[in-house]
Design brief:
Blueprint lengths: L1 H5 L2 H13 L8 H13 L3 E6 L3 E8 L3 E7 L26 H15 L6 E8 L12 H7 L8 E8 L7 E2 L3 E4 L1 E10 L3 E2 L9 H13 L1 H5 L6 E9 L6 E2 L2 E10 L2 H15 L1 H4 L3 E8 L4 E3 L1 H15 L4 E2 L10 H7 L2 E7 L21 H18 L1
Parallel strand pairs: 3-4, 3-5, 5-16, 6-15
Antiparallel strand pairs: 1-2, 2-4, 6-16, 7-14, 8-12, 8-13, 9-11, 10-12
Amino acid sequence: MLDKARRMQGQLVEWRRDFHMHPELGFRETRTSTIVAEVLEKLGCRVHRNVGKSGVVADLGTGKPMIAIRADMDALPIRETNEAPYISQNPGVMHACGHDAHTAMLLGAATLLAEEKFPGTVRFLFQPSEEAGDNEGISGAPRMIQDGAMAGVDMVIALHVDPATPVGDIRLESGPASGGVDSWFGRVIGKGGHGAHPHETIDPIFISAHVIFALNGIVSRRLHPFSPAVVSVGAIHAGQAENVIPDQVDFAGTLRYTERKVQEQIHAEIERAFSLARTLGGDYELRFEIGTPPMQNHPAAVELIRLAAADLLGEAHILPFKKELGAEDFGCFSEVAPGAMFALGTRIEGDQRYGHNPRFDIDERALPIGAAILVEAVLRFLRLK
């Protein structure tokens, strides 16, 4: 299968570079989803467009069991600074997280699976907007689920490029594989006035300093030391003139967790931090936007991918995850059916390109490896059921 996938190298690169040159933001993946749907229709798949707003769902085969493979399609609002011939042609938008590669590899997997005979059904989930929510703060995975994309699915798998891991290696293990994420928005309310008369004001900037100290003490002083978590302030806005104390200070931030009880505790502790405003004579407002849950890799799905990767690459090339709390809404799919995601090594030797960076890029030799692992895992699942 790896040999078959490598014979597709030219097509995989062509797809990936085309998507890279024409990136589209979340829920606006019109061109990308049209190309995806047309390729899948030519392969004989039963294709459903506009799932989860701009996603594509396609089935190959019939009956049970059913396994799904997911790839995300959206890009980021980043201006690319690479000098490659395939750089973004859409100013201010860039595939800086590898979703162009994910989409190309899943098209490659569909092409290879269309040549195979197997019992059951493979469902291809081409997801919009993994990176951002809509006007209700909801990202692409839950929107696709609402539209029935996971109906009848017995297992779901996916991959994500890893620019820190060499080509030929993958990272995979059971348990938490990414953090759950919520956003929070706070306001410290005081009473503004002249900067020369602070005693006549309730200074929200002074109060905010105490709130910030309390926020930064949540993880180190309020949570259990073995509970992975992050609380970060991403934006603070206050005032317009150097000699005027403002009426309020606005905050925006993010929190990450791997356990629901920790999520609940963080919410309570952020509330406690902002309540200092009342202690110091002011007031506050606070709201949370609930994001995606932690991604939990199910042991059965992990074992399926591990066996496929071991056959193709060898056991020595299956590495443990690097523990981080980046968010990934694939966890919404794996809450509906057992699922797992593996990290595919795409490091460019001598010039590492980090995700969400204007210079992000991948070593395209990894493309057939990712496609082949997905195909082998699917065939192993269907033929052994």
